[in-house]
Structure to design on (160 residues):
């Protein structure tokens, strides 16, 4: 499934860099926070080093993207939309808790800045894929029943 998806995305003009050897690594912060991530998604990030749209406005988060570098001024961090939400909720502890609670079960897998900030994420409670966008990142809708279903919908031009 991943190979066919990669071929399709290349045809659509996405810039893709494959790994020479599969990588069995996710940073400890991701493993601790999310734990239950779908096997298909893990297969995907083990095989893909980089997957970015041709206009560089959307990208799949891959293993290296999850490495925490709080001192970096380069680009967006993997949890950038959570960070933005927490800044907005500053001094409102209840709102901050709600934001953290949401992101504790929603693992971002795609980020986009095309026109506005948006994302796709895995709801680790059930494996569903959700879509959300600014200004209320935590207001999202389910778009696929699994990561495999998500890839199939992209190939059928139903998403992304």
């Amino acid at each position: 499934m991943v190979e066919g998806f990669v071929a399709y995305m290349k045809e659509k003009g996405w810039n893709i860099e494959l790994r020479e050897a599969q990588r069995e690594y996710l940073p400890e912060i991701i493993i601790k926070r999310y734990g239950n991530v779908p096997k298909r998604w893990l297969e995907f990030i083990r095989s893909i080093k980089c997957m970015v749209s041709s206009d560089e406005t959307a990208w799949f988060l891959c293993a290296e993207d999850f490495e925490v570098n709080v001192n970096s001024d380069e680009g967006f961090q993997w949890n950038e939309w959570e960070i933005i939400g927490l800044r907005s909720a500053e001094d409102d502890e209840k709102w901050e808790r709600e934001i953290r609670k949401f992101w504790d079960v929603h693992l971002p897998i795609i980020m986009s800045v095309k026109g506005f900030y948006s994302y796709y994420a895995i709801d680790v409670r059930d494996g569903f894929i959700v879509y959300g966008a600014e200004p209320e990142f935590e207001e999202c809708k389910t778009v696929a029943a699994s990561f495999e279903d998500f890839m199939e919908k992209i190939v059928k031009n139903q998403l992304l």
User: Anything to note?
Assistant: The chain is about 35% helix and 20% strand.
